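User: Before I run my own analysis I want an independent prediction to cross-check against. Here's the chain; please return only the structure tokens and, at the end, one sentence I can use as a sanity check.
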Amino acid sequence: MHPDSRAASRRHPPAALHPSRRPLLLLAAAWPLAAVLPARASGLAALSEADASRGLKAALETGAVNAVRLLGVADGFWANPRVRIPLPDPLREAGKLMKALGQGRQLDELELTINRAAESAVPLARNLLVDAVRTMSVQDAKTILAGGDTSVTDFFAGRTRAPLAESFLPKVRQAVAQVGLAQRYDQVAGKAASMGLLKGEDAGIDRYVTRKALDGLYLVIGDEEKKIRRDPVGAGSDILRRVFGALQ
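Assistant: Structure tokens:
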């Protein structure tokens, strides 16, 4: 390049991209994604209805059983900060005063107890979760397979939350009834709820724990589902590899 040309280039840098050309660049950037989408769709369409149904049922059962195994043991909730059940808000707000009055040990005991109650209740969910799979139609399977990352979790919550709450509640109630502070909380919280100062679902500590236990269970089922979607080969099932591999 001639020296005068280089000097002119330094004096006059390239002009900014004209706005009229930006949509073309955006289209070019999006082209690889557009090319991938038909392949994904054709991979799913190539699955037989039987394979789609079998693959989803395998994923459902694997995720549910793994979640129950992880949570339904000592420290399943207590040692996992993502699902550990805190004290209800009213007790947490009163915690500083109670500790100042020498009642901190009772708070600690109650928090451990409610997490132990959840751990003892979760194994009751295994059969209900697995049985929920049997209610699925082939169309349900394909709809869930084409859904988002939490579609399996949403399916479980929609089908099992109400019956699982009924199943968990007596187990949780039995565990927390042994702690005197829980009984006092119920008395105070019940009055607060009747006055509209507290949500009805938190008026009894057993119902609070049951709700939080189910939230934790579905959260971990979601984690297990995402693992299967990310790594169907690592799931160790041929049908999972074929079905979820088609969605990669």
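Sanity check: The chain has one domain: 31-245.
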